[in-house]
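Hi R.,

Here's the chain you asked about this morning:
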Amino acid sequence: MKQLRILVFSAAFGNGHLRAAEAVIEGIRIKEPLAIVTHLDFGDFLSKRFNSVVKKLYFELVKHSPKLWGKFYYQTSKLQPNSRIQRFLNQLGRTDFLQYIQEFEPDLIVCTYPTISSILAQLRLEHILQVPVITVITDYTVHSHWVNPGVDRYIVACEEVKEMLVTGGILARRIDVTGIPVSPKFEVKIDPKPIVSELGLKPDLLTFLVMGAHGSLESTKKICMKLANSLVPVQLIIVCGNNRKLYHSLQEVIASARNPLARLRYVDNLEDLMSVSDLIITKAGGLTVTEALTRHLPLVIFKPIPGQEEENAHFLQRIGAGNIADTEEKLEELLEFFLSYPKEIKKMREKAAAALPGHSAERAVEKMLELMTNLRADQKTG
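And here is the predicted structure, written out as tokens:
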């Protein structure tokens, strides 16, 4: 039997697309351990200068001018696949993509980034590309850039996203609701005691997890100071990532803290930290949201960036698994509320537990393999 060959495309515009791709690959390894899988970055097929300029512009807008990014996002959210902008985007790296695909000879292509998805979907419509294209939408909303009738199958987070795609002209039978793929390690139940002990925290004490890597230094420091000196007992895990200034600035907070505080740099065991936490304070990237919901962890979203993050945050609020704090004052109000009424956190945890079907990566891969089986059967009968 021919060995299965799969191409997976993502992009380094935020690491959510990358993490979704890695989760899909983990799912493939579980279902088809002998498959040959190659993971590629969309940006590697563009000129280095163009890729660098686009990435820099994106990150500068998101960091320093989020309202401007939001305006751009919403103004382009209703573009049609045949619009001038979309036609331009569909030409990016097109020749190089085709050449690589022809050399690799994949049985299936999976995309977790909209631009490459649209390029390949257009090639499918033109009957130039003969390989089925599956697109994984990595948010709880749909920008028009994701929508292209040439995509063979969509993998989406929830029924709301499916309805948005149908409204955009995609056939319902081409959409599978599996949840956004996250690493299967977020599904594994673990014993929290060794983790709590290693962090120097107390068992059975209310625990808040703060993701501070991409937040404002001063805002994050204020959050930590507020919790570290709360009269209501609570303990804090703060993940600083590669933000060295934040990490070092927290030393004075730790020195005077009334409550336990674990300060961490970059971590690769977020699933463990989520498993010992009662609430997470974070941004609203699609993968972060899904990982937390998979761990049944309620969220407080602090200053969501206008655009897809804002829509992800609204989704959480609608299902009752999260709250939005647009300002530091609102965040303080929410934290005081949860400290005073911890049963409300439990209610949110129940909503988080009911939000997703679970085992998203494995379910997504099952649908991918099912599509391949059906297409092969159609080719034989055709």
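One quick note: The radius of gyration is 22 Å.

Cheers,
M.
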